[in-house]
Amino acid sequence: MRRYLLPHLPTPSPLRCLLAGLGAILAVGLVGGLSVHMGTPLLIAPFGASCVLLFSVPNSPLSQPMHVVGGHVLSALVGLLLRAALPNEWWAVALAVGAAVALMALFRVTHPPAGADPIVVFAADPGFAYLVTPVLAGSVSLVMIAVLYHRVTNTPYPLKPA
């Protein structure tokens, strides 16, 4: 059985696993509570996957603030533009996801959870205000919570430029 586990992933301590889960609970809970308080949604499903990166692997380049915020904003914008121009069909969704992936790579803001943003846009069909709330405000909030959380838990985040 052990040979099927990924050998390139270091074995995390149980404490580190619990801290990652606690960070995700706090981040989604705080952003969700802020949503209720403000009366505007700040959470989207891809943010749950962003929390995996922010709290489980904060040292990954894909977890860094510019990737989280830039990836979500760019991918949601691609989804909104293509949804405005194309019918709500499976091939248009595929095109939007592919374009978002390519543009995130081009602009060096790849954040895998953001690849789901165009799917959410096509499914929900929101207006362009969606780019500000929940996408920009929510992703910035998650990053700010991650920065504070990692300071409290003595985990380096964000990474210092090389």
TrEMBL record:
It holds the Pfam family TM_HPP. It comes from the Bacteria. InterPro entries: HPP, TM_HPP. Keywords: Membrane, Transmembrane, Transmembrane helix. Residues 11-158 form the HPP transmembrane region domain. The chain crosses the membrane at residues 43-59, 66-84, 90-107, 128-149. This is HPP family protein.
